[in-house]
Amino acid sequence: MTPITVSLAMAEKLKIAGWAHAGSVHYWCPRLMSEEMVLVHSSAAWVDADAILSDINIAAPTAEEILRKLPMYQCSSSNDGKFTIFVQYGKKSEAINKTMVGDSLSDAAAQMYCHLSTEKLL
Asked: What is the biggest distance separating any 2 CA atoms in the chain, rounded to whole angstroms?
């Protein structure tokens, strides 16, 4: 089954790329009494709304949340379970094509977001 959110590793890269911490539906949070990180839905009854925005938690956006921030794109999946995001940017005569592949649609979209953010294209 494909995960709905980005992986913990990709969430950390998104944070570095400037992804907004507030406003996500899901967060990677440390499990109580452990160093393990678990995925938490921000509206869970036991989640403290202020604590979810703590710096120890990392926003874990869904593919949809990320795709809304990208310029026009194309998505596809292959028989091997990989997902591909394709974006073309720049002037038509000098257009740059960029493709990112991930194990999930959310991770592929996150890779594209990180690339476009680094290139200052968002």
From this structure: 56
